[in-house]
Each structure stands twice: as C-alpha cells, then as structure tokens.
Design a protein that fits this description.
164 residues; mainly alpha; 90% helix
Amino acid sequence: MKADLQTERFKALDACHQQIHEHLTELSDLMDRLDADSDSAHCRQKAKTIEAFFSETARTHHAAEEKDVFPGLLASDKPEVVQAVQMLKQDHGWIEQNWIELAPMLRAIAQGEDWADMAELKHNAEVFLNLCRDHIVLEETLIYPEAKARLAEEMAGRAKRLAH
C-alpha cells in the first residue's frame, strides 16, 4: 500500500514539474512583453496566474519534496546524492527568498499598479528563473531517478517476501 502511495506521489511531483516548466516559460515570456504592454489585460492576467501558481502550488510541491522525497535520500550511502539533496533543500530557501521579493511586483502588475520598478522586477525574475531551472534539472536527473529506483527496489523486495 505504501509503495502504491509513493508511486502516485511521484506521478504528482512529475506532473507538477511539468507545470513549473510551463509557468517558468510564461514568466520569461511575460518579462519579454512588459516593456511593450505592461498594462495590457493579457499581461495582467499572465502575472496573476503566474503569481498564484508559484505562491500556492509550487510552495506545496517543495513541501512535499521535503517531506516525502528528501528524507530517505539523506540516508543514502552515496555522498553525491546526500550532497545534492542538501543543496536542493538550500535551493528551496533561496527560491522562497527570491519569490518573496518577486511576488508583490507580479501582484502589482496583475492589479494594474505601476509602482514596481521594471529593472528590479526583471532582475528578480531572471534570478528566479535560473534558480528554478537549475533546481529542477538536478531533481530530474539525479534525485527523482534515485528515489524512484529506491522505491522500485522496495516494491520488488516486498513482492518477493509476499511470494514466499
């Protein structure tokens, strides 16, 4: 039962990564459009959608990784895995800090306010984009495959025990 739940959790985490990729692309596109039409209904709606996603869904995603994926890997006998998990945990903090600065500016755009400094907004967005993209690459190339392999081993061991 636990393994089935873990399998479903990974499906949800993978699906969320896809959504994060999509919203990062939207954020990048929005930054490109802001000079021309920062007050357009289209830009306001994009800013609202992006802000809501990263303020809610992405935060929940990071909490799920911290609770369900990282703890088992911190006990790994592979130093590169432990080091990567420690770095990803640190990344979550940096991503959150950057988001705390970026989110109010996106909300301002979404609400048609003009107080956000565009140069600062674009800089914070660039930092956020780079942090998130690098973070996801490490998760998708090392951490998730390692965690999924551990889960597969656990499931195979359980099936073997049940067969006897």
